[in-house]
Specification:
Mean pLDDT: 76
Helix content: 10-25%
Radius of gyration: 13 Å
Number of helices: 2
Number of domains: 1
CATH class: Alpha Beta
Low-confidence stretches: none
Oligomer: single chain
């Protein structure tokens, strides 16, 4: 995934703790990657799922606070297809049962 996006966005940096580049790891990051577009940072969240995916409250809130500069990429676990630029506004918050 990272390499595919790196070919498109030359300023791409993986910011999550799962980065394969130790210098880019950030355990407090609430998004997975970032890149520059028109001088602004675009935040990228990558989710792997079949139908539904989970976002933490922090991720969800951050996404809605930065809706114009936030992108979700969904990797389908069944076939490996990548859906990109899923609109944050299409998702609703569903509280988890306690």
């Amino acid at each position: 995934m990272r390499n595919k996006l790196k070919d498109i966005y030359d300023t791409l940096k993986w910011t999550s703790e799962n980065s394969d580049i130790p210098a880019e790891r950030n355990q407090s990051s609430i998004y997975d990657m970032e890149y520059q577009r028109d001088g602004k940072i675009v935040y990228v969240e990558v989710k792997a799922a079949v139908n539904n995916f989970y976002m933490s409250s922090a991720e969800y809130n951050f996404a809605h606070e930065h809706v114009e500069l936030y992108e979700i990429y969904l990797v389908n676990l069944e076939n490996g297809h990548i859906l990109k630029n899923l609109a944050v506004s299409h998702y609703q918050r569903i509280p988890l049962p306690i």
